[in-house]
């Protein structure tokens, strides 16, 4: 299931993924919310808090995620993936090299820092 993180800064489309994630989750929550942010800010600052295993994403959900990426390719500004899964963190950091905008991974304990980075490109000072 995907839910919108309501505490996110206004210019950030932020979501939490828990349990099973379906195509309907992307159609009903992610795509409309992302489109609203792109229309309002003319860029996409995106955060996904991944609190489920990747095998919980159905094939339809992965296709919707790919469509989201392609549809807003030129509007990507910053994207953060928040997870403790090292493989996903490494993939996110490598993905930043081939996509427009900045992509960065954060551990789960750094959700606030990830939201702050998505908002303005800076991390919270320790």
TrEMBL record:
SUPFAM superfamilies for this protein: SpoIIaa-like
Domain of life of the native organism: Bacteria
Classification of source organism: Bacteria, Pseudomonadati, Bacteroidota, Flavobacteriia, Flavobacteriales
Protein name, per record: STAS/SEC14 domain-containing protein
């Amino acid at each position: 299931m995907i839910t919108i993180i309501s505490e996110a800064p206004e210019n950030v489309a932020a979501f939490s993924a828990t349990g099973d994630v379906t195509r309907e989750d992307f159609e009903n929550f992610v795509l409309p919310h992302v489109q609203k942010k792109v229309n309002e800010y003319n860029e996409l600052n995106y955060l996904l808090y991944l609190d489920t295993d990747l095998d919980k994403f159905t094939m339809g959900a992965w296709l919707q995620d790919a469509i989201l990426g392609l549809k807003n390719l030129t509007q990507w500004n910053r994207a953060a993936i928040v997870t403790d899964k090292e493989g996903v963190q490494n993939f996110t950091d490598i993905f930043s090299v081939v996509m427009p905008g900045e992509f960065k991974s954060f551990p789960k304990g750094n959700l606030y820092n990830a939201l702050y980075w998505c908002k303005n490109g800076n991390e919270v000072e320790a």
